[in-house]
């Protein structure tokens, strides 16, 4: 009797511990901030942080690639690109959008000392497409940066608020995805920390749930095989 009593207590304790551990698994949080892996009070870390504070970071950007199979110098396509650009500028956490339709070059003439802003691409004037495209692809800052030389595609550079947390990154990623796909481009691609972070964390969460569940089921299966019944392994302490 005494062994049965202690056995039931042990099984109850193990059951409570299992429930507690399961609760802890549900409460797991995921962090995409790789800077937390850097050593604290380290000379190299301090140099990196000072450089980042002074010059900014390349993690606060999202890139959107837009393809148009019939070519990028098409009025309908460029009109959608410009509308998308203006829509993104209205989103929370977005600081600046550099787009093929709003890129400017600055010139200064002898008779006019003040800087003059001129668009690289006069997208609303189709008669200037040939001349603008020739100038664009002869400009290293634009060729293969905003305009692809290998594919009929352009890129939007989006600068957002620095150091966005996970929840805000997910919101921004969903807003960009929904807004971008609403224009029905031939192909659309996303890149950047805030966008990749939401995908990465969702993937980690799903894989964690899958592997934890699989591990529990595998252990139960082996115990059932070993003790010949589902409840047999629980009687080990009885």
Q: Can you characterise this structure?
A:
By secondary structure, the protein is an alpha+beta fold. It is built from 6 helices and 6 strands; from the N terminus they run H-H-E-H-E-E-E-H-E-H-E-H. It has a 4-stranded antiparallel beta sheet with strand order 2-5-1-6. Strand 3 and strand 4 (112-119) form a beta hairpin. Helix 5 packs across helix 6. It is elongated, with a radius of gyration of 28 Å. The mean pLDDT is 83.
Give me the secondary-structure topology.
Blueprint: H1 2-26, H2 43-55, E1 61-67, H3 75-89, E2 94-98, E3 104-109, E4 112-119, H4 129-137, E5 153-160, H5 166-181, E6 187-192, H6 193-227
Antiparallel strand pairs: 1-5, 1-6, 2-5, 3-4
Helix pairs in contact: 5-6
List keywords for this structure.
238 residues, four-stranded antiparallel beta sheet, alpha+beta, 6 helices, 6 strands
Describe, in short, the structure shown.
The chain has about 240 residues and is α+β, with helices and mostly antiparallel strands. About 45% of the residues lie in helices and about 15% in strands. It has six helices and six strands; from the N terminus they run H-H-E-H-E-E-E-H-E-H-E-H.
């Amino acid at each position: 009797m005494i062994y049965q009593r202690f056995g039931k207590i042990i099984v109850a304790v193990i059951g409570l511990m299992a429930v507690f551990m399961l609760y802890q698994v549900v409460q797991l949080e995921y962090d995409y901030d790789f800077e937390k892996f850097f050593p604290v009070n380290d000379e190299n870390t301090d140099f990196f942080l000072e450089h980042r504070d002074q010059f900014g970071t390349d993690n606060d950007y999202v890139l959107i690639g837009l393809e148009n199979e019939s070519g990028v110098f098409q009025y309908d396509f460029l009109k959608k690109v410009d509308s998308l650009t203006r829509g993104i500028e209205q989103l929370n956490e977005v600081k600046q959008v550099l787009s093929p339709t709003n890129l400017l070059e600055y010139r200064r003439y002898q008779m006019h000392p003040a800087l003059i802003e001129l668009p690289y691409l006069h997208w609303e004037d189709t008669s200037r497409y040939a001349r603008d495209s020739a100038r664009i692809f002869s400009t290293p800052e634009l060729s293969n940066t905003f305009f692809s030389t290998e594919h009929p595609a352009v890129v939007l550079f989006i600068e957002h608020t620095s150091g966005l947390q996970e929840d805000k990154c997910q919101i921004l990623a969903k807003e960009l995805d929904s807004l971008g796909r609403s224009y029905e481009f031939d192909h659309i691609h996303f890149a950047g920390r805030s966008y990749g972070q939401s995908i990465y964390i969702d993937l980690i969460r799903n894989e964690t749930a899958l592997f934890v569940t699989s591990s529990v089921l595998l252990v139960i299966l082996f115990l059932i095989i070993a003790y010949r019944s589902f409840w047999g392994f629980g009687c080990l302490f009885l």
